[in-house]
Amino acid sequence: xxxxxxxxxxxxxxxxxxxxxxxxxxxxxxxxxxxxxxxxxxxxxxxxxxxxxxxxxxxxxxxxxxxxxxxxxxxxxxxxxxxxxxxxxxxxxxxxxxxxxxxxxxxxxxxxxx
Length: 114
Hints:
The protein is mostly helical.
């Protein structure tokens, strides 16, 4: 029973590492890091990789030519809002990671003493 739990933990850690790599590959694509990570985590790395490969790459040069952006300075309120949104996303990802670790530890000890 303990060996099964350890095997599950090892597979979960490997899945997180592979999903993180696929998420980083998706960062330069339209799918983005978060979507690529969660798709590969829940649906499997192969499906996540296929979605990243099929996704359209972000071409920053074309977007500059097509839209001809005007340099607009963000107001301090907008900068603060962006910063707080980023901090909120970091907190959510940290909480999800901690919950996952707690579940793994609970599964390990439950199987160890029962």
